[in-house]
Amino acid sequence: MSDxxxxxxxxDQRIWLTVCAIPAGKLSTYGDxxxxxxxxxxxxxxxxxxxKLPEGSNVPWYRVVxxxxxxxxxxxxxxxxxxxxxxxDEGVLLGAGGAAVLRRYRW
Length: 107
What we know:
42% of the residues lie in helices and 4% in strands. It has 107 residues and is mainly alpha-helical. It has a two-stranded parallel ribbon. It starts with 7 loop residues before the first helix and ends with a helix.
């Protein structure tokens, strides 16, 4: 028997559509995305949905950061480097500690 809930796919889609709405050059936190997707308090669920993105997806996952404005990916990993590069291409600058200024970039 599968542990997967029947609504998981629907919730993933709702989260992905919300992430797609984040404008270029802006960021949202996992909690912001959850709230906008109608799932207040479900920040971890947003992370789970983003981890399930199919390879080659156009969903701009890199625009989602933690509540401190930092990547949730381990520093120095391929994913963290890709996130930083995507954000830099959109004009989002990260500080030396890897955090973005949310009051400037938050959507």
